Amino acid sequence: SQMRKSRTQKRTVVRDAQGKHVHLERLDDTPDALQPDALQQHLHRLLQRYCEEEEEEGGRRAKKEENLADWYSQVITKAEMIEYYDVSGCYVLRPWSYSIWEAIKEFFDKEIRKLGVENCYFPMFVSQAALEKEKSHIADFAPEVAWVTRSGKTELAEPIAVRPTSETVMYPAYAKWVQSHRDLPIKLNQWCNVVRWEFKHPQPFLRTREFLWQEGHTAFATKEEAAEEVLQILDLYARVYEELMAIPVVKGRKTEKEKFAGGDYTTTVEAFISASGRAIQGATSHHLGQNFSKMFEIVFEDPKKPGEKQLAFQNSWGITTRTIGVLTMVHGDNMGLVLPPRVACLQVVIIPCGITAALPEQEKDALLALCSTYLSRLLDAGVRVKTDLRENYSPGWKFNHWELKGVPVRLEVGPKDMQQKHCVAVRRDSGEKVKIPEAEVEKKLVTMLEDIQNSLFKKASDDLQSHMVAADTMEQFQKDLDQGRIVQIPFCGGIECEDWIKKTTAKDQDLEPGAPSMGAKSLCIPFSPLKTLQPGQMCVSGKEPAQHYTLFGRSY
Predict the structure, then answer these.
(1) Which end of the chain has the lower number of beta carbons within 10 A, N or C?
(2) H or E element: which one contains 524?
């Protein structure tokens, strides 16, 4: 009797120990008949699944504003974005999340080709000698490097590292390819995976031992060319976040403490998660100067000084699958994922409603034919759309399912809608229901999808602006920080001072369940600060003159 309370309708038939047929309300796909010894196990699975659903319906699903870590874990699993794996810190990216990465990849790849960047692929293995050639560079990665030390039962004569990043993999080849200034610039990019064997608490997409990314590596004859490209790439990263994912970012330059090890300077885009009051690094574009070209002897003959060798100027830049986690946390709500239309692999789902046993077969056929017509028309209009015609699930179950997965628009088509020659579009971002005349479906939905994209960006932008403030004293800085804000403060830029700020602002309790307590770190020196330094203004520590207003905050 309990099983009949479940939300699903379709029955399955199993045989009991005496061979009699037993009807059960079906919660998942099962064989038409089970052997007696499997019946008990099958019943246990059904009851467990039923209890899980009842628990969720009873209000025990984690709420974003109360327990962000649990909410995040539930959303990415129930929305079918990831599957857990038996190696800690590694996860299966299911099609629903991987399609977001494909949308990012398609956009970014098209844009960097306009800049003359070509794709390539280098091996994932790097020798110990090459990896350790640039000491300051590898020092930051050393604790996270994974090493291959054995083949079968045979110990390798020299351990081989799995790439944590590819500077030391690619630059020996650059040294071979560059002889003359005519061989420059080199503009290469690769889409690949990297491994960083972190021991911190792993979180899917946000902190994983293996992740997907693109890494661009370029070499130029002049510093000016390299510096120009650094900002061109940073602008593209900002567009990925703002135009595709509807997430506002703060563009700026990293402090000396936070810059890429071995580089001259690092630029970054920083996003903000208001539910936790924490920032997250979105993507980085580094100017490496001549540090790596000196180590790897990437030199060319200076055309202005015949016979003299000149070191190349280099950049590296990357964006990762962390983007998917940021998107989930920024836009998701207590009903699940919320996908911006431009990265949603499915923008509209058509759901027929009101199909009951009492509905004449002729009307049912006409209703399904109308759904098919809407499907064809929307596909022709360039909308990513599908119909959900599964008979073993009720319309209510389908509504919940597609809301959880974040599909931007649900199109409901029922017998009354068909008679009145309209359909009902339901927006995922606001829940608003809009009646659309049958003849205007394509036009209205294309406009609605664009409006959803813009509305999500405006909501997130308002959120960022209300949580990013400026403070001139340590007392005000601490107060703003504890209220979940990110704060621009006058800062001297010193590494020791930054360490002091982090220690001083550390909290004793967790910021959220499952997250470590932490002090504030520098996020970036914003290109567009909220305030301008006054002559003689001191660092917030009161010890040294301030150099810039610098954005600080607790961070992932």
Answers:
(1) N
(2) strand 521-526
State whether the Cα torsion 447-453-459-465 is positive or negative: negative
Burial 368-378 (b: 16+ CB within 10 A, else e): eebbeebbebb
Q: Which of 12, 37, 60 is the last residue of a domain?
A: 60
**DSSP label at 510?**
-
DSSP for residue 533: P
**Helix H or strand E segment including 288:** strand 278-289
Residue 78 forms part of a structural domain: no
d(CA 216, CA 476): 40
Tokens in use for 88? 């800690």
CATH number of the domain within which 395 lies:
3.40.50.800
Among 251, 259, 208, which residue's Cα sits nearest to residue 231? 251
- According to the model, what pLDDT value does residue 134 have? 66
Q: How far apart are the first and last CA of the chain?
A: 47
Amino acid sitting at position 85: Y
β-bridge pairing 521-526 and 146-151: unpaired
CATH of the domain at 304: 3.30.930.10
What would the pLDDT profile of 301-339 be if each residue is shown by its tens digit? 988 888 889 999 999 999 999 999 999 999 999 999 999
Q: Give tens-digit pLDDT for 133-143.
A: 866 666 777 88
Bond from prior residue into 341 cis (ω within 30 degrees of 0): no
pLDDT of residue 205: 97
